[in-house]
Amino acid sequence: MDWFKRKDKKIKEKNKKAIPDGLWEKCPSCSEILFKPELDKGLSVCRHCNYHFRMNFRNYIDLLFDEGSTSQLFSDLKSSNFLKFSAKRDYGDQLKDAYEKSGITDAIEIFSGKIKEKTLIMGVMNFDFIGGSMGSVVGEAVSRSIVYARKNKLPLIIICKSGGARMQEGAISLMQLAKTSAHLAKFSNDGGLYISILTDPTTGGVTASYGMLGDIILAEPGALIGFAGPRVIKQTIGQDLPEGFQRSEFLKEKGFIDQIISRHEMKDKLYNIIDILN
Questions:
Q1: Among 8-17, 62-71, 101-110, 163-172, which stretch is predicted with the lowest mean pLDDT?
Q2: Do the beta carbons of residue 106 and residue 124 sit within 8 Å?
Q3: By CB distance 3.0 to 4.6 Å, which of 123, 218, 223, 268 could disulfide with 158?
Q4: 146 near 183, Cβ under 8 Å?
């Protein structure tokens, strides 16, 4: 390949400037290339097609609560490997890695705060903590938040984002479905207002319990919502699934959710619902 080499030594080649990683993001819906800092400023929503990227759980706290109004509840709860579970990796090591990666003690955080001066309780799930899976601590935190809202006659909001039950905790994890559902039944009987917000993804045990038990069930556009995944269902029934199956638009059409809301209008919508119903 000597013929391809530059022969004129007087012409200097400039070093190409390296483009830092993480500056650009391709929209999976419209294929537009988005500048990541601008995307983050826009609540991780594509300005071309309104596609909702997954957003860090802390951004929901900043988005929805009035500034300076939040107080975290039940932050002392922390998971442990009480069953001594170990497969390819020890569950205790998985928990340790999840603590270090996410900076929180489990897959949900509970807050007391205000939306436009309306006091409420809100739980925000974190998918970065072992896929937002629901184990004993998530179930306990949700149950305590329901009891707290019930005693103080406050509305409750839970922002769901989960891969389902945490199998490393066995049947203890599955028991949280009944536990949280029972507390919500008491909360409902006492006239409490519970709003569930389903984000991408909300699947498995969370869908089968508090995710779908809201008095008002809201969802973000395009969110994957279901119990078993579409691939499992397709293999089980041996048929192709409808277009958009298990996406929030499909579920709204079938009557499973009440409304699809964009992040940009979420705070106003929540305020209006609470103002009317609580």
A1: 8-17
A2: no
A3: 123
A4: yes
